[in-house]
Amino acid sequence: KAGVTQTPRYLIKTRGQQVTLSCSPISGHRSVSWYQQTPGQGLQFLFEYFSETQRNKGNFPGRFSGRQFSNSRSEMNVSTLELGDSALYLCASSLAETGDYTFGSGTRLTVV
Amino acid sequence: SQKIEQNSEALNIQEGKTATLTCNYTNYSPAYLQWYRQDPGRGPVFLLLIRENEKEKRKERLKVTFDTTLKQSLFHITASQPADSATYLCATKASGTYKYIFGTGTRLKVLA
User: How confident is the model at residue B41 (pLDDT cuts 50, 70, 90)?
Assistant: First the structure.
């Protein structure tokens, strides 16, 4: 079966710009979560969506937002990019309440 | 706050030996713990889930234990191979949420 697909794989943006990342979950998975991974902080939870509803949000500023479409595909948006937003952004989908997430390969965002 | 802690120092072991990684949790009692493997530049891959009422879980050369008294899970790789070299992450769901908390991971290097 196809895995979780994240696009693009790499992105370079300038401070102040905005960016949109995309995630296509495994077919049938209705829960999609987003994480930011940096060397110092590890995986930090951004938000989780289920059937187009955001059920949880992490401790990130309002510049970070997301949404989920009726086909379960999800996007996250970061506005007014800062250097500290440089990270690997990971999307994960799951079927059951116990998670056992399937992660995508991530989008490596570099802000210059 | 609920926390997951892993030894952030890298673990180097000789091929064929058993690698043991530790995950400690504080300030709550998770119903289960998950272990993931992550290779550089890739998303984590789910390996095993162990529930609080299970003392031990095995999958091929992998073994996970869960000690609710010590608030600790141990992850063992027996007969380790250089291909097992990766970062291993411990995770669980924060109580009352759909958010997963991850440890920062332990980098394992198996020397040939």
Answer: confident
